[in-house]
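Long-time lurker. I teach an intro course on protein structure, and each term I like to show students one example going from raw sequence to a predicted 3D structure in token notation. This year I'd like something fresh instead of my usual example. Would anyone be willing to generate the tokens for the chain below so I can use it in lecture? Attribution to the forum is fine with me.
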Amino acid sequence: MNKMSEVTENVNNNNIHIYEKVKVVFLGEQSVGKTSLITRFMYDSFETSYQATIGIDFLSKVMSTPDRTIRLQLWDTAGQERFRSLIPSYIRDSGVAVIIYDITNLQTFNQLEKWVTDVRAQRGD
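-- Reply from a regular --
Happy to contribute to a lecture. Here you go:
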């Protein structure tokens, strides 16, 4: 087990299930679709109306394969500049960082290097 995941136990019907917990943080500029991707993954739905994420949102989903069960912790970060100071602490203990940009907005693509630099500053290469 590596330091990016944590083992938790859940007792259910006298069986012990071991969950590997993986923290996934979604990063990117405002309005690139971070929340939309998470909503599609979690609920298989798409919201046509836009509502900005304020601060950080959190969702959890258990995924199973024949050999293990993983609890994904999905952290949806706000893209607005005023919330940037919150993000490093969420990157620091994440197992995965997903950096998203809007293919119709070149400026969001040009900001990818900044996000990669932020992740490397907190997590290393």
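Some talking points for your students: DSSP finds four helices and five strands in the chain. The domain at 5-123 is CATH 3.40.50.300 (Rossmann fold).
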